[in-house]
Amino acid sequence: MNKYINKNHQGFMKQFKRLDRWMMYYEKHIASPVSLEQFYNFTIMYWNFKLIFFFQLLAKHRSARGSLASKVKDVIAVVFSEFNLPPIPLINSNLRETEIKKWKRNPSVKGCFNRLFKKIKNIGPQTYMSWIIQTLRKRRKFLSKIQIAYAISVCEVLLNPHNLHIQVNESVIKPFLTKNLVSI
User: Fold this and answer.
1) Which pLDDT score, from 0 to 100, does residue 61 have?
2) How many Cβ atoms are within 10 Å of 97's Cβ, its own excluded?
């Protein structure tokens, strides 16, 4: 290190007339020993920063998932109304179990679920699900494979009359997402 400083920073080294002054400066300002308390405080600050950063990223991720789920719900209604199918009634996410059962037994909700993967008449090989994905792509410029699988899973969870889920959370969507990721 002395060679580097002497070679690259001669003006800095000239202020130390004797080598022992340089050594005292070095020990005091550069290589000072760190106390256990200083090390502990630094470590706590470091990990607090990491945790805060992690939770901020997690919140952004959850927000993005929620945003995609709400867009999928909107697009479901738009797509089925485009083809003059009975409209899906609006639903509040804070309903009781009996009200959720009633909503899921609604003929228009059942009809949408039954048509989800069926071909659209007079359109060709497209299914209602592929039309939903296509409409989502128009609203969002890029959809990754996992986002497509997530959108399919949201449709299945929301419209499936055999479950009582109308809110999309990790424990509900995970089995559907796993299945749909393999299928894509």
Assistant:
1) 66
2) 8
